[in-house]
Design a protein that fits this description.
Elements (H helix, E strand, L loop, with lengths): L1 E3 L6 E3 L10 E4 L6 E4 L29 H9 L12 H30 L1 H7 L3 H7 L4 H13 L5 H4 E13 L2 E12 L5 E2 L3 E6 L5 E7 L5 E2 L4 E9 L7 E6 L6
Antiparallel strand pairs: 1-2, 3-4, 5-6, 6-11, 7-10, 8-9, 8-12
């Protein structure tokens, strides 16, 4: 039979013959509590078994040790002690979760990039995607055409954004020296602000051959969109055979 300590609920497996005929006092080997335990009733027709020798598991005195109870307690499986490294597990789960979210965001960004870069081929292959583009107010056919036109459009050169205007060459004596004075304007017709590079001036003869070349920088360094700035350059003792001038940006087209 199984004995259960009424104080700590520790259970012991005991031969019920040790409690016959009238029961006996037993003690819990775990908490030391003592109580009187009666034997279970015999089945009908069974005879009272002979008394067994006094076992070490049961005791007639409360202060005697219960060896069988100690042995039963030793055979009971014990709960393993907590592992010392369990507190590290939440940090590992947190790191794994962070990498998972990063991978998810990266995947979503790639999908959005493909949808934005190739709307027309995607809609052609999967017409159902047209409804997805309609939800965000994008016409995939128009967006693809505009994107192709923008990629096919050659880059705007510097001289297409900056234009020379109102060139006025003149000669006069300055402090007794014959001096060629060239004045003009530069207009930014582009959509973005532009940095003014150095300006090159070439004097030409009547056969369009170079006679004299020099480079100078305008006082204004940056021109905003739609802005017009003025410049001036001087050359003392210009060649007498000079018939024409050519003004360009260094590295730009000729004007």
């Amino acid at each position: 039979m199984i004995l259960t300590c009424p104080d700590c609920a520790t259970r012991y497996l005991v031969n019920d013959a040790l409690l016959r005929p009238s029961g006996r006092t037993v003690r819990c080997a775990r908490c030391g509590h003592t109580w009187f335990e009666t034997p279970p009733p015999l089945p009908s027709g069974a005879e009272e078994p002979p008394l067994a020798p006094e076992p070490p598991a049961a005791s007639s005195a409360p202060d005697e040790p219960n060896a069988d109870a100690d042995a039963a307690e030793a055979r009971r499986p014990r709960r393993p002690a907590p592992r010392a490294n369990l507190p590290a597990l939440p940090r590992q789960r947190q790191a794994t979760s962070a990498w998972g979210w990063a991978g998810l965001f990266g995947f979503v960004a790639c999908v959005i990039g493909v949808l934005a870069a190739f709307p027309r081929p995607l809609v052609t292959a999967w017409p159902q995607l047209h409804h997805l583009y309609a939800l965000v107010g994008v016409d995939p056919m128009t967006a693809w055409q505009a994107s192709n036109e923008q990629r096919a459009r050659p880059p705007i050169t510097l001289n297409e954004r900056l234009k020379f205007r109102d060139l006025e060459p003149s000669q006069r004596f300055i402090e007794g020296v014959l001096t060629l004075v060239i004045r003009g304007k530069i207009e930014n017709i582009g959509e973005n602000a532009a940095h003014l590079p150095p300006i090159e001036v070439v004097l030409l003869d009547n056969r369009a051959l170079d006679l004299k070349t020099w480079v100078f920088e305008a006082k204004t360094k940056t021109v905003a969109p739609g802005e017009v700035v003025e410049f001036e350059t001087r050359l003392a003792n210009p060649p007498p055979d000079a018939q024409d001038i050519r003004v360009t940006f260094v590295g730009g087209d000729k004007r």
